[in-house]
Amino acid sequence: MLKTTGSRPSLVPRAEANGRETSQSNAVSTAQEQKDKEKLPSPIIVHGFFKDHLKLTMTLKNTIGSQYTIKYTKYNTNIYTRNKRDWTKLREVLKNDGVDFHTYTHKTAKTHAFVLRGLHREPTPKEIAEALQEEEVDAQEIYMRGTNWPAYLVITNRTYTLDKLEGIKCTLNTKISWQRHINNKIFVQCHRCQRWGHATANCHARVKCVKCAGDHLTRDASTVMAITQPTT
């Protein structure tokens, strides 16, 4: 005969019990679906290889645990993380250690680009941004393209669409029009390390001048040459 101690367990109606089980099952399913929907971060691509593989694995373990994968290619060491938090932590560690690497913008931080036409060349990007702010458009960056009747490249977060912006037909008391920006570049070259295939904003490698291969940005080449040019 089985004996029990303590108070008698309460009896739960079958329908209520089934309802609780269903709710718990739905909650677990929703959490799993949310986890599955999270896009894996882009790889962190280290330029070259680490001399001490054991030290690399210890650094990774101390930084993000065991949730990572390493892939060696012909020229690089690719490190794959499981989530944005680990991806961000590892980027900071590699930056602080002076490791040459690049990666790509995370999906949640991607931006949209639109072309604003119709304005004169006199308004500054700051003035345009303030005018758009009054229309509830938060422009992250604005660049002027052209001179006489310029087009302005407006960078926003990924929630803005062309349909939304086309509702704004006038700003700074001037009629305007909007277009989606189309990037026609087939190949992207980094203006920091001069490698192909990634943008400067996501590069943390040592700088290299495309003119002289010196350790300075290309835009500073003329200044460096003027300083180092021997006087006669």
From TrEMBL:
Residues 20-32 have a biased composition (Polar residues). It comes from the Eukaryota. Residues 1-38 are annotated as: Disordered. This is Nucleic-acid-binding protein from transposon X-element.
